[in-house]
C-alpha cells in the first residue's frame, strides 16, 4: 500500500513539474511576442544631439565649436531602444565645414541647414533622415577671422648615426616656413613652429621623412599640416690641415708658429677638395695694437660640412717687419 502511494505522489509531482514548465514556456513566448509587437510599433522621441564643428578654414576660428540642436525621432521600438543605449555624453555628431555648404548671415554669424545634422544622426542610428524632424531649419555658429603670420619651421630631431657616419650639412625642410593663424595675442608671441620629434638610430645613409607640425594643441592653425625633411648622411674621416696665420692689412707681421694646426672630420666626398684656403684664423687685433708679447688666435671660419675636433696653438708670438 505504501509503495502504491509513493508511486502516485511521484506521478503527481512529475505532472505538476511538467505543467509548471509548460506554463513558463508559454509565459516566455507570450512575453517575447508582446515585446516584439511593442518594439515594432512607432514612437516619437524628443531628443537633443550635440553638434561638433570640425575642419574649420585655417584662417578662421569658431568661438564655440559645439552646438546643441533639438529634434524628434519618429522610429520603431527597435531603433528607439538603440537610441536609449547611447549615453547622453555620447549623443553627438560631427559636421566638417569642408563638406557642408555654409553661408554668412550677418557680421560673423554663419549657418548651415540642419538637414545635414539629421543625416548624421540617421547614419548613427541606422535610420533614414526622413524619420527625423528638426526643431530648427538652420544651425547657427560664430566664426571670426584670425590674424596671420609667416614663421620659420624648426626641426626637432634626435638622430644617432653609425660609427664613422654623420649628418652632412643641415637637414632640408620643405616648406621651410609656413603661414600660421590664430588670435592676435597668441600670434604675437610665436616666433617659429617646430616639427614633431624625428628620431633615428644607427643611421648610415641619407633618408627623408614627413613630419607633422606642432600647432600647440590647436591654439594656432595652418593650411600646412606637415613638412618633408631631407637628411643627408655621409661617411666621415679625420683630416689635418695647416692654416696660415695672417693679418689682412698693410702691416707686415710674422707669426711664430706661422700656421694653426686644425684636426677635423670631413666627408669622404669632400676630402680631395678641402684645402687650407677654406679656413681662416683670426688674431686679436687689440692685443696686437697694445703690442702685447703673445696674441690670442682662433679659428674664425671653415666649411659648414667640416667638423672641428681641435686646434693648436691658441697663442702665438710675433714680429713686426719694418
What would you note in describing this structure?
The structure is a single chain. The protein is α+β, with helices and mostly antiparallel strands. The protein folds into 4 domains: 1-40; 45-145, RNA Polymerase Alpha Subunit, Chain A, domain 2; 147-231, Beta Complex (RNA Polymerase Alpha Subunit, Chain A, domain 2); 236-320, RNA Polymerase Alpha Subunit, Chain A, domain 2. Helices cover 21% and strands 46% of the residues. The chain contains 5 helices and 25 strands. The protein has helices at 2-40, 77-84, 115-125, 184-187, 285-289; strands at residues 42-54, 60-62, 66-76, 92-96, 103-106, 109-113, 132-134, 138-145, 147-154, 157-161, 165-167, 172-174, 177-182, 193-194, 198-203, 207-212, 221-222, 226-231, 233-244, 253-256, 259-267, 280-283, 295-301, 307-312, 315-320. Strands 4-1-3-7 form a 4-stranded mixed beta sheet. The protein has a 4-stranded antiparallel beta sheet with strand order 2-8-6-5. A hairpin with a 2-residue loop joins strand 5 and strand 6.
Number of domains: 4
- CATH fold category name of the largest domain: RNA Polymerase Alpha Subunit, Chain A, domain 2
Beta percentage is over 45%
Count of helix runs: 5
Helix fraction by DSSP (H/I, runs of at least 4): 10-25%
Q: At CATH's second level, what is the architecture of the largest domain?
A: Beta Complex
Coarse morphology? elongated
Stretches where pLDDT falls below 50 for ≥5 residues? 32-40
Number of DSSP strands? Answer: 25
Largest sheet: 4 strands, mixed
Label the structural class: alpha+beta
Q: What is the end-to-end distance?
A: 152 Å
Amino acid at each position: 500500500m505504501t509503495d502504491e502511494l509513493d508511486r502516485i505522489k511521484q506521478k503527481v509531482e512529475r505532472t505538476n513539474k511538467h505543467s509548471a514548465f509548460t506554463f513558463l514556456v508559454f509565459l516566455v513566448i507570450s512575453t517575447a511576442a508582446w515585446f516584439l509587437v511593442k518594439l515594432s510599433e512607432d514612437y516619437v522621441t524628443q531628443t537633443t544631439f550635440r553638434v561638433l564643428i570640425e575642419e574649420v578654414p585655417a584662417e578662421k576660428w569658431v568661438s564655440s565649436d559645439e552646438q546643441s540642436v533639438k529634434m524628434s525621432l519618429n522610429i520603431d521600438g527597435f531603433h528607439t531602444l538603440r537610441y536609449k543605449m547611447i549615453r547622453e555624453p555620447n549623443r553627438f555628431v560631427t559636421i566638417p565645414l569642408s563638406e557642408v555648404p555654409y553661408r554668412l548671415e550677418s557680421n560673423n554669424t554663419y549657418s548651415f541647414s540642419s538637414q545635414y545634422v539629421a543625416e548624421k544622426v540617421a547614419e548613427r542610428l541606422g535610420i533614414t533622415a526622413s524619420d527625423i524632424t528638426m526643431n530648427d531649419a538652420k544651425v547657427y555658429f560664430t566664426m571670426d577671422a584670425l590674424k596671420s603670420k609667416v614663421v620659420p619651421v624648426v626641426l626637432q630631431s634626435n638622430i644617432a648615426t653609425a660609427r664613422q657616419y654623420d649628418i652632412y650639412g643641415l637637414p632640408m625642410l620643405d616648406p621651410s616656413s609656413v603661414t600660421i593663424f590664430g588670435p592676435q595675442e597668441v600670434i604675437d608671441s610665436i616666433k617659429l613652429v617646430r616639427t614633431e620629434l624625428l628620431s633615428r638610430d644607427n643611421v648610415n645613409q641619407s633618408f627623408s621623412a614627413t613630419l607633422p607640425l606642432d600647432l600647440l594643441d590647436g591654439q594656432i592653425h595652418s593650411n600646412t599640416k606637415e613638412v618633408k625633411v631631407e637628411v643627408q648622411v655621409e661617411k666621415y674621416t679625420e683630416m689635418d690641415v695647416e692654416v696660415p696665420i695672417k693679418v689682412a692689412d698693410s702691416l707686415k707681421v710674422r707669426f711664430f708658429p706661422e700656421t694653426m694646426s686644425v684636426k677635423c672630420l670631413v666627408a669622404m666626398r669632400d676630402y680631395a677638395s678641402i684645402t687650407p684656403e677654406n679656413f681662416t684664423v683670426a688674431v686679436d687685433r687689440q692685443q696686437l695694437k697694445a703690442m702685447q708679447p703673445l696674441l690670442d688666435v682662433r679659428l674664425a671660419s671653415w666649411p659648414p660640412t667640416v667638423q672641428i675636433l681641435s686646434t693648436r696653438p691658441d697663442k702665438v708670438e710675433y714680429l713686426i717687419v719694418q
